[in-house]
Amino acid sequence: MLMASNRHSEIIVYGVLLTVACLAMPTFSVGPTLETKTCPSSDYLVNGICCNKCHAGFKLVKDCVSEDTKTTCMQCPKGQFINRSNYSPTCFRCKTCKEERHEVTVSECKHYRDTQCRCNDTFYANKINSETIECLKCTTCSPDDVVIRKCTPETNTMCRPKENFRPVDPKSQLCDNCTDECKHLCTPLPSHKDSESGNGFLVHILIAAVVVTVVLLMLIICYLATKRLTKMVLRKPRSQKSNVSLDSEKSLIQKDMAICVPACPESALLVTEPNLPDCVPPEIKTHDLIYSVLDLVPVQQIKQLVRSLGVPESVIQWAEQDHKSKEAHYQMLKAWAEDGSHAGGGQGGMLNRASLQELMHKLNQMHLGGVAEVLETQFGSQGQPGSFVKRTRSLLVADHCNSTSHPDF
Fold this sequence. Notes:
With 409 residues, the protein is of the alpha+beta class. The chain has helices at residues 2-24, 192-235, 246-256, 266-269, 286-296, 302-308, 313-322, 325-338, 353-365, 369-379, 387-402, and strands spanning 43-46, 49-52, 58-62, 72-75, 80-81, 92-93, 103-107, 116-119, 123-127, 133-137, 145-149, 158-161, 165-168, 171-174, 283-285, 346-347, 350-352.
């Protein structure tokens, strides 16, 4: 029983040793095999050694015995050649140019190059493959053909039919009917230009219409610009002490009306201009007026107001860059009040009546009549708050009620 157990253990040990030996066998290789070793393109592999190839014009005599030695080569004998590096023990036989094949020798055979041949005159080379050619007779153009290219040892003659002739093997023939080669006998079709002549006329009409439209638009723009300039000139007072004339106010109000009153009651016709007081305050404190405007006019319409008052864009940009929102708006209105070109301007922190009237006009044009009424109440005539706004409205109603047609805008 004990012996059987020992034998069983020995078998297991032998099996384990055999398995380890099989797994370890591939690692016992001492170097690259002949199948895995490669040589550079200038060498060839023999007996596990990379030997150098022989140069063109030389054949192999003996392989090298180690990578430190050279291959033994010998020049090809006369009448033989090799035109590339090699390890061939034999050379190739030189070819001979054959007169019966219409070949002429260009250069004799060398040990590194084969004989060079070309086709004889009146023959050209027709390649059969990369190494072989045959010489064929050059084509002769017929009297009805024109020579485009003469025959050479490499290319054949090229011909084409003369005008009004068509190609027919082996010669050209005079055209007798309409074909691809005789298109001059075909009935000409309408040209592309003729088919487009009608369209061209329409294009010219469209271009003329566009030009006329552009000219009309330019004239309208010029008319509107002239009209606006005229209105601005009419708004300016004739002197610093006098107010805007009543006729100028009526004209400006009529031109700014968007809707004409279709019908008016008789009581409206009786509205008359109230008498202005003899005592009119000539000047107003600029500081008080500006802050009242800032409190009453919406913030988003301040810049629109100052632009309509003629404040330059450079002044507006300067105020926005150097000041916060409300202070910037204050500086814009201050620039208008101090500018002598706007309704007489203001001096010493005071604003004259003419400048106030200009401000009233701009507010009414911006549909801010309520703001204009409040400012007129605060800074208008003594004893008659809102007299300027009321006088403006009275003139407007009376004028439209007495008119039988729309005002000319």
